[in-house]
Amino acid sequence: MEAPETTTKADLAHHLMERLELGKKDADLLVNTFLQSIIESLKSGEGIELRGFGSFRLRDRRARQGRNPRTGEAVMVQPKRVVYFKIGKELRSKLIQR
After folding, report:
1. pLDDT digits (tens, 9 = 90+) for 17-75
2. What are the φ/ψ torsions at residue 60 (nearest 5 degrees)?
3. What distance in Å separates the CA atoms of residue 32 and residue 66, rounded to the nearest whole number?
4. Is the CB of residue 65 less than 8 Å from the CB of residue 26?
5. DSSP state string for 41-73
6. Which of 60, 61, 62, 7 is closest to 35 using CA atoms?
7. How far is CA 65 from CA 26, 59, 61, 96, in A?
8. Which secondary structure element, helix H or strand E, spans residue 87, and what is its range?
9. Against a cut of 0.85, is the pTM above it?
10. Closest to 93 (Cα-Cα) out of 65, 56, 52, 62
11. SS3 of residue 83 by DSSP
């Protein structure tokens, strides 16, 4: 099965270069600053809400018992925090319309 195409940070920067007539350095800085601000907000426990696009939140996963897929042996999976993305209504409707 073939993997779907993926947009990279470089692709986003290139799109900004064309759309906003920015230089490569400025476009890269813009993308990196935007992503870094999301990371910093999540690290401090804040959620991110981008109206029309979606929201990022942290969720706590409790410890649980799992299985080693190779051996079938029971193992304890430690509690952890994971990032959860909830798609916004506007983005959802645009993706469904295709």
Report:
1. 999 999 999 999 999 999 999 999 999 999 999 999 999 999 999 999 999 999 999 99
2. -95, 130
3. 36
4. no
5. HHHTT--EEETTTEEEEEEEEPPEEEE-TTT--
6. 7
7. 47, 18, 12, 37
8. strand 80-87
9. no
10. 52
11. strand
Q: Is the pLDDT of residue 3 over 70?
A: no
- Three-state DSSP class for residue 88: coil
Cβ contact 58:83 at 8 Å: yes
Residue 92, H or E segment: helix 89-97
Structural domains for the chain: 1-45 (4.10.520.10), 47-98 (4.10.520.10)
| CB-count exposure of residue 57 (10 Å: 0-12, 13-18, 19+) | middle
Task: Look at residues 37, 33, 36, 30 and name the one whose alpha carbon lies nearest to residue 15.
Answer: 30
